[in-house]
Amino acid sequence: MLESYVTPILMSYVNRYIKNLKPSDLQLSLWGGDVVLSKLELKLDVLEQELKLPFTFLSGHIHELRIHVPWTKLGSEPVVITINTMECILKLKDGIQDDHESCGSNSTNRSTTENTKSSIKPRRIQQAAPTDPDLPPGYVQSLIRRVVNNVNIVINNLILKYVEDDIVLSVNITSAECYTVGELWDRAFMDISATDLVLRKVINFSDCTVCLDKRNASGKIEFYQDPLLYKCSFRTRLHFTYDNLNSKMPSVIKIHTLVESLKLSITDQQLPMFIRIMQLGIALYYGEIGNFKEGEIEDPTCYNKDMLVNITGSEDETRVDIQYPAQYKVQELYSQQDEEQPQGWVSWAWSFVPAIVSYDDGEEDFVGNNPASTTHQQKAQTLKDPVVSIGFYCTKATVTFKLTEVQAESSYYSPQKVKSKEVLCWEQEGTTVEALMMGEPFFDCQIGFVGCRAMCLKGIMGVKDFEENMNRSETEACFFICGENLNTKGFTYLTNSLFDYRSPENNGTRAEFILDSTHHKETYTEIAGMQRFGAFYMDYLYTMESTSGKGSTNQQDFSSGKSEDLGTVQEKSTKSLVIGPLDFRLDSSAVHRILKMIVCALEHEYEPYSRLKSDIKDENEAILNPEEVAFLEEYIPTRHTSVTLLKCTCTISMAEFNLLDHLLPVIMGEKNSSNFTNTTNFQSLRPLPSIQILVDKINLEHSVPMYAEQLVHVVSSLTQPSDNLLHYCYVHCCLKIFGFQAGLTSLDCSGSYCLPVPIIPSFSTALYGKLLKLPTCWTKRSQIAITEGIFELPNLTIQATRAQTLLLQAIYQSWSHIGNVSSSAVNEALINEIFLSIGVKSKNPLPTLEGSIQNVELKYCSTSLVKCASGTVGSIKICAKAPVDSGKEKLIPLLQGPSDTKDLHSTKWLKESRKPESLLAPDLMAFTIQVPQYIDYCHNSSVVLLCSVQGLAVNIDPILYTWLIYQPQKRTSRHMQQQPVVAVPLVMPVCRRKEDEVSIGSAPLAKQQSYQASEYASSPIKTKTVTESRPLSVPVKAVLNISEGCRSPEERMKEFIGIVWNAVKHLTLQLEVQSCCVFIPNESLPSPSTIVCGDIPGTVRSWYHGQTSMPGTLVLCLPQIKIISAGHKYMEPLQEIPFVIPRPILEEGDAFPWTISLHHFSVYTLLGKQVTLCLVEPMGCTSTLAVTSQKLLATGPDTRHSFVVCLHVDLESLEIKCSNPQVQLFCELTDTMNKVWNKIHKRGNLNLSSGSPETMAGPIPTSPVRSSIGTAPPDTSTYSPSADIGTTTEGDSIQAGEDSPFSDSVTLEQTTSNIGGTSGRVSLWMQWVLPKITVKLFAPDPENKGTEVCMVSELEDLSASIDVQDVYTKVKCKIENFNMDHYRSRPGEGWQSGHFEGVFLQCKEKPVPWGRVLVFGAMWRCLPFLY
Fold first, then answer.
1. CB of 340 within 8 A of CB of 321?
2. Cα–Cα distance, 927 to 950 (Å, whole number)
3. Of 324, 716, 1061, 1330, which cross-links 777 as Cys (Cβ 3.0–4.6 Å)?
4. Which one is predicted more confidently, 933 or 730?
5. Antiparallel, parallel or unpaired: β 1322-1340 and 1214-1219
6. At 586, phi and psi to the nearest 5?
7. How far from chain centre, in Å, is Cα 1229?
8. How confident is the model over 322-333, as pLDDT tens digits?
9. pLDDT (mean) for 1067-1091
10. What would the mean pLDDT of 119-132 be, rounded to a whole number?
């Protein structure tokens, strides 16, 4: 009697999925209570249809199926279904894009699924025909429900394989069991009651192994890789809540999985395959493959938002799985796959649980309901979607990255073995992945973990840096730490899960869910997420709110322009990611391991999954009417992403070994053999100098339109789109950095860092950019910006002593000088100087240079026609802080801009009162530049440069020389004895060659030059070894390369002129530079505390009037400069970009002539006791520059130009005065500069040479090696063909000596035409006009004390012109008058003419009477002061 009800249910499911079954046999054995079926083939097409996965089953069979039905105790014992060994092989569907007929709209999809349902239903209704009038329907119904709710499913040995290209992914689960449990999650026979509308189930998976292997062309796996996941066990709890006893669907479904320990292992060969499978998951989620999860697809033809709960619960887990960002998906991917697949394969068994399948509610049919009522009920239940919560929790996960190498066996025939070595390990604690969804309108996914760290293991690329015998501590091995420890944090990651004893489900109450976006955002804030997790928190929320109550509309309406449902659905997608406090250490070990992983990941050639859509605009697109545009204006769906990093510390150490030349070329796309072996002995460098960067907070905001393609097509077709609509056609990105600071630190032998020495104090900055989507749609709108960027920097300060910059330079060089046999030895005195012990004072503290730049704003914009940039720089200040004995610092300003330099050209400003520097001073620099996208296509826009620079004050103070010439002390033996701790050799070989077996570390320490550039630095012994073992080959080759690379200076000059011409021929130029005033004092000029910090003129003035005598100062006032091109009218230098100028330059050279005017150039000296002496009186000039060009016939591959350059300069009168104290001051200043220059130059040479005098000694100079080391170039004339020609023609040229002027001009012509022939000709015409030069020389009269003598020279009406043509060069010079007079000044009498009426020399039209000048002997008395 019962059998007639139960048997058809079981029969229908078995028959539905399994081929070739005889129902009669099955029925008979079922009635016996046990059925055993062997070697069953699955109906693959039905499985594919039911699961709706984009995969094809290649094969699927069950070894043995057992069904046990306890007919006598059906109400108290479960039906047990056991599957022994089930194997399925899948692959991606072929031609997947064409497979789903472009899916149409949502409604068509729904209807197709309805059809499949109806095709399955009739068979079931026929089978369920027998009804027994003796059994009351209510009793049967409740009994069937009890049976169904307590079915036990056991699967032993489940094998799933996925194949694609050369990838074979296999999942093997030893056993999986699903059974019903009671309140305490123990096995029990349960049913839903009116008081307790809850059903609980547990699925236990034991020994899950995941393998990822590579197969060859014939499909065989040559050698097996280590399993990705080995014998991992986990358990899943399912919790269903019903609204009432008769509910076919539960109202709440919770499926949570817990893994205690997840250990993943990835080898270098598995990494590309692993990434490929990740990409597959992402492509499936975003609908780039087939018709799966169209919810996130940006494709107008399919808008099939998140067809959730209509497959199986396990399917939802697929959705969660694919949602993670790649780095957190690692542990998740496989565990999810393992648990999801068995549920999929046994979904027929699961379908007993009405809870899980939202279609196929077939039990109604069995109790004799008619089809009409069925469809009605189905309609009713689809109105209310269940709330589905899926969770994955992992207590501890580790991912180990291994490098493999093939080992050949001893005998020839034995197979190859693969040996793997661990190099990198990632550990993660307290991982949570939770998804909450309710039908289409709401989906939320939260991911977080409590703490993580990354560690270096073993060795990398032959460097055994972390082998067991190195005794390195775990803190040294760990290079990345983020978040907290699970022991201190507690089990917050399990909060509200089915594994949390405090959760409502485990306390008999009903859980509350937040299914409203505003409430969700208020509850799950970034702070709340970080409190729960600590290291990482991500919240992804997708909501679809219907404003008109019509339910969901489809996107098809959007693209085709129908308006019936437009604007009724508001979609939003927001992702917010928060990364907690992290510490990242980049040392050689970490960098090489990370780059090696990247190199391994790039070593694969797979076709991308995503199909590229063409940007071609559909011409026959319907234009929207105003109503529809108004709908669009109201709401446009976007995706918004926000990433926040809190408290980030990054430490970049000096490279202890550097093999980047084997990794970087591969990453940059150049193929390189990566099977490189290196046998260096690794020696850790202590103390290890490092740069430490701290950032308080980094925030990145990114937003993009959800349906960009359709939106852009619609908006670009409108004649006048509004700013709001245009705004949504861009991808927007905004980066904000708060509290960025950097300093130098050092890692000592104990493994701890010393206190950082600040280099860059804390500053903040922001960068904003936007990019137009589908720019090809906007080709007709040339004014619309394609990209736009804004950069803001309120304040940046950099401060450093010379020792600190040397250390920074050493750190940089240790990374940049790649692959050289070098020893990056850091001078210990330098480290001691920088990192002083606490409480220790330095003997001679170093001056610090501090530079700051303020209010920088830059803007960039590009349209289809032009690229343009504009910006302002508020101010720049540089000053030196010099320590004083009293312990305070004195401040010496060195550069200040903007500074009011308008009146500094004359010395009056020192006498008159001076306003202090205004805080409202204009920006130091404002500029705008606009360049066409294609230089050749300048018809509608020329190159424009508008720029204005305010005044600058510069103080070249001697403190600057002190800073520059600092050199660290060499270490002494006494110093070594006092500190025996630092006996760790600081010299460290990077890689060795066979010839230099001599250890670098054995070089005498005293002879090591500090701070050698590591490219050349080496010990004397080693250099000698190298040169002796290979005396000729390398240097000669190098010399030849150099001589080949050299071109004649004329060639290079012509090329340079060509480049400059291309840059300026279309240039509209407007340049204004205010005067720059340079003060060069003889001694330091500290800024007094009474004036505004850093005001240089103010400092000079206060010293000038001060009590103490002012040091001698030379003041150089550079001219104001104005350059403006022809026909250009003055514009504000800062323009809104892109902009249009009134008169663009269309033809080459139309910008010329340029008018250049210089004003207020002067030089004077300030001496003690308020003495000011002028050297060059203020003067200026105006000049005109014209350039014309003609294209010559192309002699080579590129066209050359011939240029005519004309320059006319009108100078103002020039007056030069000079006296003894000025000459003395000038000599002192040049002498100081010369000494400093020699010291720097000498040190530079030492750094560049091999740093040892021995290389120069001995017999080596006779070989070509000498010339490669020294400065003299090798004499190549002995074997150069040109030299031979020269020697043969020597005799002829001597014979032609009679008419040498002619022969000279011929050679000149030959040379110019030769140059011109190859690279274009240049004709030059320059003219200078100067009304008057006056030179006054003052000196005390040695014979008469208190008397001064002055010599005055005057040249009037000077003009000079130079004309350079192809065949001649002509120079003209003309002076109208030239006079020299001398004067004498006595106290109280003023200046009077000297002897002979002061005449010394006269050249003019009216000569002096001869009688005055004849007394020749007396003239010499006037001369001594000249010498």
1. yes
2. 12
3. 716
4. 730
5. parallel
6. -100, 90
7. 46
8. 333 333 333 333
9. 88
10. 37
Please name the residue ranges forming H helices in 1296-1405: 1300-1319
Distance, in Å, from the CA atom of 901 to the CA atom of 917, rounded to the nearest integer, reads 11
Percent of the chain predicted with pLDDT > 70: 71
Measured distance CA(290)–CA(300) in Å, rounded: 14
**Alpha carbon separation from 1008 to 159, 563, 824, 1019, 1329 (Å, rounded):** 66, 81, 11, 7, 59
Encode pLDDT of 221-248 as tens digits.
Answer: 888 889 999 999 999 999 999 988 888 8
Using the structure block, give the residue that is written with the tokens 């492509």.
283
Question: Do residues 930 and 863 touch, judged by C-beta distance below 8 A?
Answer: no
Residue-level pLDDT at 414: 63
**What integer pLDDT is reported at residue 306 of this predicted model?**
34
CA distance 200 to 187: 10
Amino acid at site 383: L
User: What's the alpha-carbon Rg for the chain, to the nearest Å?
Assistant: 43
- The end-to-end CA distance of the chain, in Å, is 138
**Is a pLDDT exceeding 80 seen at residue 824?**
no
What are the backbone dihedrals phi and psi of residue 568, each rounded to the nearest 5 degrees, phi first? -85, -20
pLDDT at position 187, please?
Answer: 93
- Under a CB-based contact definition with an 8 Å cutoff, are residues 622 and 560 in contact? yes
Helix (H, G, I), strand (E, B) or coil at 190: coil
* Phi and psi angles of residue 7, each rounded to the nearest 5 degrees, phi first: -60, -50
Cα 856 to Cα 109: distance, rounded to the nearest angstrom? 55
- Which tokens in the block code for residue 64? 């043995």
The answer to whether the CB of 1303 falls within 8 A of the CB of 1296 is yes
Please tell me the predicted confidence (pLDDT) of residue 195.
85
The pLDDT confidence band at residue 1251, using thresholds 50, 70 and 90, is very low
- Cα–Cα distance, 1110 to 657 (Å, whole number): 53
User: 118: pLDDT confidence band, cut at 50, 70 and 90?
Assistant: very low
Q: Whose structure tokens read 């701790």?
A: 981
Question: Which residues are CB-contacts of 1033 (< 8 A; sequence separation ≥ 6)?
Answer: none
DSSP codes, 598-615: HHHHH------SSPPPP-
Q: What is the mean pLDDT of the chain?
A: 75
**817 near 675, Cβ under 8 Å?**
no
Please tell me the predicted confidence (pLDDT) of residue 138.
76
Nearest by Cα to 59 from 45, 73, 80: 45
What CA–CA distance (Å, rounded) separates 1261 from 1263?
Answer: 5
**Amino acid found at 479:** F
pLDDT confidence bin for 136, thresholds 50/70/90 = low
Q: Is 1126 within 8 Å of 1146 (Cβ atoms)? A: no
- In this predicted structure, the answer to whether residue 984 has a pLDDT above a threshold of 80 is no
Q: Distance between CA 335 and CA 397 in Å, rounded?
A: 11
Which DSSP string do the residues of 960-972 spell out, in sequence order?
HHHHHT--PPPP-
Task: Please give the structure tokens belonging to residue 493.
Answer: 């990651």
Judge whether 162 and 90 are in contact, CB under 8 Å.
yes
Separation of alpha carbons 904 and 1075, rounded Å: 9
Least confident range from 331-335, 529-533, 573-577, 895-899: namely 331-335
- Tell the residue number behind the tokens 């976006």, with chain if given: 517
pTM (2 decimals)? 0.77
Structure tokens at 329: 């998906």
Spatial CA neighbour of 938 closest among 1151, 755, 752: 1151
By the 8 A CB rule, do 226 and 209 touch? no
What's the pLDDT tens digit per position in 704-759? 998 888 888 888 888 888 888 999 999 999 999 999 999 999 988 887 888 889 99
- How many residues are given for the chain? 1427
**CA-to-CA dists, residue 1273 to 15, 610, 1045, 1049, 1276, angstroms:** 93, 59, 14, 16, 8
Backbone CA torsion sign across 1148, 1150, 1153, 1155? negative
Residue 1372, SS3 per DSSP: strand
| 3-state secondary structure at position 472 | coil
Strands (E), 215-243: 229-241
